[in-house]
Amino acid sequence: MNNTTFNNHPIIKNSNQYFFEKKYISIHSEDRDISKYPNSSEFEILLPQEYLNVASSRLHSWSFPANYNVFSINNYNVVMSFKFLDLYNPGEYSVTNDLAFAIFSALYDYSDKEIVITIETGFYNPDQMATELTNQFNQTVTNIITNYFDDPNNNISNTVKNQFKTNGYKRFSIAYNSVAQRLFFGNQADKFIITNESSSFISSNIINNTCVTKNLIPELVNWGLPSYLGFTRCNVTAYNVSEYIELLKETPFHTILSNTFVPRFFYQEVNSSSEFWIEPDTTLTGSSIYYLQAPFKINFMGPSYLYMEIDGWNCIDETSPYNLNLYTTQTNKRNSIVNSSFAKIPVPTTPISQWFDEHGLGPYKYWNPVAERISKIKVKFRYHNGLLADFSKFDYSFMLELNILKPQQEKSYSIVNAFDLTQQQSYGSKFI
């Protein structure tokens, strides 16, 4: 027996025997220091105890609220813009309508100028979005005309002001085709273009007027509100029926439309209120309906996955969005991130609800050698594009699984089988 020179206690020899234990930690977002971490998407928290000799860990289960905003300033998808190309001019049709003349005069200065609309933050179904866009388009133009009328230099009579104040500008109509799952944009008299190629309205209305910051990488998907509505980065021009006929004739297969055709949804019942989603304004002699449809289906679902990061625990490699720049065209290096996150969490539902799930065979973070001591963690929840997840004031929880190695002394023991009274003798970890 070996003895130390300072005491009579024997030194216990390291037998390299360990007991494997799974330990689970339940963490609730409301338990964080809210004064220090007001945003529950990113916080640090002390664990219930110090965990020693941790060999591996993973996310075991979770519960998150599906009360996020698909459309928000943080997501850069509440703004879009358009321009008027040709305005209805009553003088061309010998119309004596003072209000129509005044509207033409007010909008004339805005010909070929971008007009920006901003929708309300939140989550929409398709019909709600169509209504929101209709009202926002009309209200934004109404505000422009009202400002023009209120300018004393423009000599607008009180009679015209009162007439306009009663109804405002109501020529835009935007509808959702539930069969094609696309949005249709129309105007009863004025030709317009959706300016998806523009980026000036993003910087002027979002970046400069809020504390939100985001790297303006030229994204190919989810680059703004129009991308959720089914548009590409290309501008889309509205045409009237006769212009549509000429465009169709240039295609090898085209549908012959009559010059009196009015845009309609044929799947609707005849004479229903939504069959003709836009109709001519009978008060505007000679006016034409201008309309367009989004090239692709809408997508209001929001992000499909959350990424969970834990400082020092990240073990998942993640690709990054491709963008065309000098780096990607002149090098063969990968545009990705190594050890970017700890767990990838699917978002299976839409607001308003709560979802629960667990990892059957989720990724593990391994330590070799083992982590001697873990007492706190710092977590962050984000989306693939790097933006923090927005849980607002809703709480969530998750459970971590730790695999711990506990050192054991080498022991000898015997086991008697109750069935046939046979006996097994062990010495340390070996049976003899």
Brief account:
With 432 residues, the protein is of the alpha+beta class. The protein has helices at residues 98-108, 126-150, 158-167, 200-207, 225-228, 241-249, 326-330; strands at residues 17-28, 42-66, 79-86, 115-118, 172-177, 182-187, 191-194, 236-237, 290-293, 305-310, 316-319, 336-341, 343-346, 353-358, 365-382, 397-408, 412-416, 423-427, 430-431.
Q: Give a short account of the largest sheet.
A: 7 strands, antiparallel
User: Which blocks of ≥5 consecutive residues have pLDDT under 50?
Assistant: none
The percentage of residues in β strands lies in 25-35%
> Radius of gyration in whole Å, from Cα?
33 Å
Number of strands: 19
Distance between the termini: 25 Å
Overall 3D geometry? elongated
Give a structural overview.
This protein has 432 residues and is α+β, with helices and mostly antiparallel strands. The protein has two domains: 17-68 and 304-408, Jelly Rolls (Sandwich), CATH 2.60.120; 79-293, no CATH class. Helix content is 17%, strand content 32%. The chain has seven helices and 19 strands. The strands form five sheets. Strands 1, 2, 10, 13, 14, 15 and 16 form a seven-stranded antiparallel beta sheet that branches. The chain has a four-stranded antiparallel beta sheet with strand order 4-3-7-8, sandwiched between helices. The longest helix is centred in the first third of the chain and has 25 residues, at 126-150. The two termini are 25 Å apart.
